[in-house]
Please model this.
Amino acid sequence: MNNLIIDAHAHLWKKQTGRRDNAPVRSLENGKSDFGGEIRQMMPPYMISGENSPEMLVSNMDYAGVSGAVIVGEVMDGNQDAYFKEAKSKYPDRLKICSFFDEGEEYTLDGFDGIKICACKLKTPGLQKHFDVFEKADRENKFVCIELADGDKQTGELREIIEQLPNLKIAVGHFGMVTRDGWQEQIKLARNKNAYIESGGITWLFNSEFYPYPSAVRAINEAADICGFEKLMWGSDYPRTMVEITYKMSFDFILKTRKISEENKLKFLGQNAEKFYSFSNLPVVNPVPNML
Model:
């Protein structure tokens, strides 16, 4: 399949400085982290230094044949804005970066392509209370990547903002938390012109089933019935999902399924993201044959 593949949901960090609820999250060695007092395998064990580097990501992208990626932050990782800018300076044509909004902290859109909002972890509930963040992104022609609370807990609030700012590009993450009750309500948001859904974390959510994730494929088709395949984008949730699978496996199950047409695979794996995130001049990466 000699076409662009774009990862709409990947993470980087120099060193984790975030939190789990009110407890700190800190990088350790050999891919492990102190996750609010519990030791968790946060990355594959060969990422030994605790740094989740752009060089490692791009090496994985090259191996798997992924042309571009969107870098988003997370509360557990802490603010990595400066590191994201360094990554973008190294790979300006292949990475789009989001500044990180953490309530009560200063944020900037300068030098960033978009902004990431973990709405499900806001200290002050109510998206309208943070309307100025959405309005600023709209005014500066930036996209918003957002993760919502399970089901329809925040969909009404986001729908109001979509109606108020109809030209603002919004990507709803984690495929609407697809394994939770009411996930379809998040997918329905993509019926609006500039709202899309990205699948970062879908292999985590269906991890108990594991590769080739037949239930994930069924969910993707169900979502397409709701909003159309032209509104869905693939994301890996790198590197956390790579503790169980390889980077290539995070989309290989889409390539190999017969339950999605070749045309819709192209939309889902790259064409939609190329349009939504305004990628240009991306290389088509042809993987080097491996020893197997």
The chain has a mean pLDDT of 97. DSSP finds nine helices and twelve strands in the chain.
